[in-house]
Structures are given as C-alpha cells and as structure tokens.
Amino acid sequence: MSQPAKILLQLDSDPQPSVFDAVVAVDSGVDFLLRHGSATPDNVRDLVYGAIFTRGGDDLKHTAIFIGGSNVAEGEKLLAAVEKTFFGPRVSVMLDANGANTTAVAAVLATLRHIEVAGTTALVLGGTGPVGQRAARLLAGLGAKVRLASRNQERAEAACRALADQVPIERLEPVAVSNDEEALTALADVSVLIAAGAAGVQLLSAQARQQANSLKVAIDLNAVPPVGLEGIKPTDKAVEQHGALCYGALGVGGLKMKIHKACVRRLFEATDLVLDAEQILEVGRSIA
After folding, report:
1. What is the C-alpha radius of gyration for the chain, rounded to an integer number of angstroms?
2. What confidence score (pLDDT) does residue 192 get?
3. Ranges of residues in the chain whose predicted pLDDT is under 70
4. Is this structure's pTM higher than 0.85?
5. Which residues of 204-216 are buried (b: 16+ CB within 10 A; e: fewer)?
6. What is the pLDDT of residues 147-173, one digit of tens each?
7. Helix 19-27 and helix 249-267: axis angle, to 10°?
8. Fold identical between 7-99+255-287 and 103-252?
9. pLDDT value at position 77?
10. Which own/partner contact pairs does 234-243 have at CB distance under 8 Å and 24+ positions apart?
C-alpha cells in the first residue's frame, strides 16, 4: 500500500508566505504545501484543527506544521498558540521564522567542527537580534561563557534576562560594543566570535579582530556589504586569518540549507516533535 502524501502546513506571520521556505519544503520531499499568510495566534486554531482532524493513526505523521515569517517574535507567539491548540491528536511542528534557528545552528556547528566550546568564552556581536540571541543561547547551553553584545548596554542586559529561563544566567554577560576600543575589551580571552548584526552594518574592523590573540573561530553571518566582520569574505569557509578560522555568511549557508531540509524531513517521522533551536541543533549534529 502506498504511503499517504506528505502535507506541510506553512504558517507565516507575513501577508505573503515566504517563497524561500516553500521552495525548501518542496526540495525536502513535501508533496503538498498549504501556505497561509497573516497567521496570528488568534486565527491559527482552525488551521491546526484542519491538519490534525483529517488523518488518524500512523497516517497523521504524514502531516506537519512549519512556522516562518520575517518577524521572529511573532513566530514564537505562533508556536505557543499552535502547541496550545493540541489537546490529544497532534502533529510535529518546526519554528524557523526568518531562518533564525537554522542560521544560528549552522554557525554553532561550524564552530564545533574546530573546537569544543564548553569552558571557552564566546562573543556574539549583534546579540540582541533573533539570530544572535539563538547563537548565544545555544553556545551557553553547550557550556560556553557568552558575552552578548549590543551597541547599547541596557539592550544587552535585557536580552540576557530574556534568555535566563533557558540557560544559566551566570553563563551570560551583557556587554556594550559600539567601537573598536570596546570591542577589544570584549574580545579578551574570547575563542569564538559570531557576528549576527543587521545586514550592511560593519560591527568590527579587521585591525581590531587581528589583535584578538585568543580567537580560534570567527563567523560573520552578514553577506551584504559592508560585512559585519571586516576582512572576512561571504564565501570564506574555514579560511585561516591570524590564527583564527574564518567563515562568511555563504560559508555557513550550505550547512544551514542542509539543516533546514533535514528538519523538514524529520517532521514526518513522528507526530510529537517540536523543533526549536535546541532540537534543530540536535538534528544538525546528526548530519554534520
């Protein structure tokens, strides 16, 4: 007997659901994609009911939910609303709004190719953004001491407080980095540097980075010029510079895509999976 078709319900907080996410879903083996834009916690219930009441038994695992959109905070609210909707029958769900989870996981896995992060110190520039917060959260969860940086000290402190219910607060240190002098102070004893700032914003000069003698891995997740870490090309992949292995955004992009596709495929293996940052990391580790 043939297997039921794989159906993915794509919930997007934007009016027009992401074409990128749709293409990745198709390339991951999804048979039918049901795309819904302008999804909110208030209107998502009946969409989820439509997914979980149409199949039963083993057939139900052939339906899954993907939560995307450009607004990560709204995506998190959608995930909470979807989970609240489940009361018995349920399907697996993945959150990757704005690609924040898969991008952060790819950066962390690229780092783990070269060093064990437990016991090290990491600096995340642009740490108050969605990708930066997830990178900090994952690194801290793996045992690193993470300096979460923002141009504004109060914003860095607020981001650390927001992460305190997910990782030990003592592993998070908020720092203000608005110039090279502050950056050099923040880089003291740092082994891992991840830049996750806004597109087209340089966060650190090449000169300052080259003075960080303890640096082992440097990853810039911005491909739009000027890049976040001056001197690192978007296509760099484990390129050695002044004792550190450097990655650009495209250098980790291939791994990010593999992780995204693997996670979509994993959704159809069970009905009880919730793939957020930590769970996506585990999927990534299984394929890296």
Report:
1. 20
2. 98
3. 1
4. yes
5. beeebbeebeebb
6. 999 999 999 999 999 999 999 999 999
7. 60
8. yes
9. 97
10. 238/110, 238/113, 238/114, 241/210, 242/209, 242/210, 242/215, 243/213, 243/215, 243/216
In this prediction, residue 1 carries a pLDDT of 54
The end-to-end CA distance of the chain, in Å, is 34
Q: Which CATH class is domain 7-99+255-287?
A: alpha beta
Token digits of residue 269? 């293996």
How far apart CA 32 and CA 139 sit, in angstroms, is 36
Residue boundaries of the structural domains of the chain: 7-99+255-287, 103-252
- Looking at residue 287, its pLDDT comes to 87
Torsions phi, psi for 36 (to 5 deg): -130, 120
The CATH number of the structural domain formed by 103-252 is 3.40.50.720
> What's the half-sphere exposure (Cβ side, CA atoms, 13 Å) at 133?
19
